[in-house]
Amino acid sequence: MPLTLLGRSNSLADPTEQLRILGKTSSALPFDLRLDQAGIHPLRATGITVLQINVGKLCNQTCRHCHVDAGPDRTESMSRETAEQCIQALARTDIPTVDITGGAPELNPNFRWLVEQARGLGRHVMDRCNLTVLLLPAQADLAEFLASRRVEIIASLPSYNAGQTDAQRGNGVFDKSIEALRLLNRLGYGQHESGLVLNLVYNPVGAFLPPKQAAIEAQFRKELRSRYGVEFSRLYTITNMPISRFLEFLVESGNYEEYMERLANAFNPAAAAGVMCRYTLSVGWDGRLYDCDFNQMLDLPVDHGAPSHIRDFDATRLHQRHIVTRNHCYGCTAGSGSSCGGTVV
Q1: Using the 8-state DSSP alphabet, how is residue 312 labeled?
Q2: Is the confidence at residue 12, as pLDDT, over 60?
Q3: Cβ partners under 8 Å of residue 84, min gap 6
Q4: What does the mean pLDDT of the chain come to?
């Protein structure tokens, strides 16, 4: 019998309910036991090379696979005070990369300030962009702003086919995404000689593992170039995580157990050893600290004595923290692995 989501008031089961469902996976060993069998439990951080800042859940799109449950109706938004605490913590470290995400992070009123402050500290900045935000009238100069600050853009595009993209991200999103990509290309993004990096992110449309990253990148490059004259730097494949809207889809379609079994059967110890949470620290919109953006959405903050808020940032204690893991972590450790930077191995 398919699992059901209980006690829900909107499209998102609360984190406790999601964890209850993930904990009842009958087709796979608990993830921590699998780590123990591989001799890598508990996972420990290996330092922090990426400070990932989630500035809120407001977005101009409502995507079916979104693990943040972001959308136009969300009000969670990082304040200037919390943004300042992020920069203060960054300034006390040599963390080289700042990864700004959301929602549509550009809709946060402090987004551009964060970019300028991080760049002023000499850090590399990445913007996780849904592309269509670049075409909003209120963001008419956004693409030029990003280019002038040499911000790396990581842009979601689930398919080079309009039908598949629109099915996952909303009607008309594909055409707008192509328009935005052409705009970025005109500014130099995706052009090798410019140094302006434009990476695409591919998520499977459905309850499947992504194909080999190199193969799908070559296919995207050929199709986008020949059909639309679009260029990009790299393509990352990311496994759909069994949380939030995608968990809801799995449960309601009766695919939950099969998908979790597929992830568990593809568990790769080498991918587990290289997961992004070992070198990334995730900051929530309210300043709370997490091992990754996925743990953030399940309300699983850092643990084992590590500071829990960015205002209490302590690099020494956070650099070697124990990583909080649950069954959703199978999503990052299946096959070649999955991270915010694509495959792991």
Answers
A1: G
A2: no
A3: none
A4: 91
